[in-house]
Amino acid sequence: MIKTYTMGTTKSNNRDATASHSETLNDRRKDNEQRLFSFIFPMYNKSLGKKIFSSRSNAIQNPMGLMVRLGTVLLLAGAVFLIFELQPAFEQLHLDRINSTWGYAFIVLTTSLLVFQIGFFLFNLYLYWRYKPIESVSDEELPMCTVIVPAYNEGELVWKTLHSVANSDYPADKIQLIAIDDGSQDDTWSWMLKAKQELGDRLSIYQQPENKGKRHALHRGFNLGIGEVFVTVDSDSIVKTDTLRNLVSPFVVKESCGAVAGNVQVLNNERAILPRMLNVSFVFSFEFIRSAQGQLETVLCTPGALAAYRRDAVMACLPDWINQTFMGQPSDIGEDRAMTNMILKQGYHVMFQKNAYVLTNVPEDYTGLYKMFIRWERSNVRENIMMSKFVFKNFREGSKVGARLLFFNQWLKIIMAYPFTILMLLFVITQPVLFLSSTLFSILILTSIPVLFYARRYSSYESIWAYSYSLLYTFGLFWITPYAIATAGRRGWLTRGLSAK
Predict the structure, then answer these.
(1) What is the CATH number of the domain that holds 194?
(2) CA-CA distance, 177 to 97, in Å (whole number)?
(3) Residue 250 covered by a domain
(4) So what's the pLDDT on residue 344?
(5) Are strands 145-151 and 229-233 parallel, antiparallel or unpaired?
């Protein structure tokens, strides 16, 4: 059983010991982290937990990125101009809608949804302001931890992943590090062997006889693990030195904690334009949205890139998880969301640790991006159906209103996917200029929230990518959700293939 804090003098003494321990190890952590990331990524910035460059350096090294952002700004500025110029046309369109039954119904529906979304955002903003990550506990309090790294066609990056985990500021005698090659077709296994030679008994490596998928590789790791806490790390991800102890600490502090989500940022955000867009999107998705969900202790998905699970919770649902099916077919996607759902169903709380950073690779081209999103959306559809079977029951102690509100918001996006797609296409056909100007203006207004959030926390210059990403998603990826709903029963990882890193 993992120790939990008690009230009174013991709690105070533990906190004092933790604070003292943190101070004495501060220099060592900084040295270890600097040594690791200067070894793996020479331009890594240890203070932010991400690679950053100055604005001038970005402009010089990536003129295409500068052109994209400049074009984005000019396009949105043009939309503002058109909104004012076309004001009479918008007023006439509004009057025409009011005077028709369908038009009036459309106005009522969109206004109602807008009011709900504004209220939901304000609720999330309130939760975000209240959220605080749990501070790291002392070495003595940290439990035995099994870190599982499944890999498929990852090449050299799996070696870097394993070294980043091994370099963690976590008691060496309390880490069991397991890497599993899921039948890779490239040199992944040779890089695992190299890591094994360098790390010795600190690392155990296994090879699947054939490619069975990430879920089966993790299943083998869970069965091999001896830790009180399981940590899963994707093989294309790098963890910071203090990530593991920050990720695991909630299990010590809260006995009701069943799983913890890490804070995911983009590793390859200097290699291509799409990763730079996604990095800004990820920051808002994790540091704002998951912070709010974490305050409710109902994070809906513990990311595959970095997540931690209480052993007892995993073992209680492991048979159902590995044998999960959808529409009669074995589930080979969404293993992270499925595990989260099954742990929530048991009555555990799922938390978020903003101070547990991981950097992960994302697709660098349009094809890889839309395939990744299709996989995510199919999983979202499946697991929302699964969640509907328990979320309105007495599935855990305490308030369940927050969990149900999050669930409702998820379903609202799915339900409205087809109606809004159809209405958008009708608007494009009947009023193309008004559609373009109003859509661009809406992007400017709504996307300013993540832009300001990223600018305040990281970089004003880089925050402009949020606008570019919104343009891409609105005009180039709008079809993802409707398509994923229609094909939710299809199998396949879609983005798995030989590494090109």
Answers:
(1) 3.90.550.10
(2) 62
(3) yes
(4) 98
(5) parallel
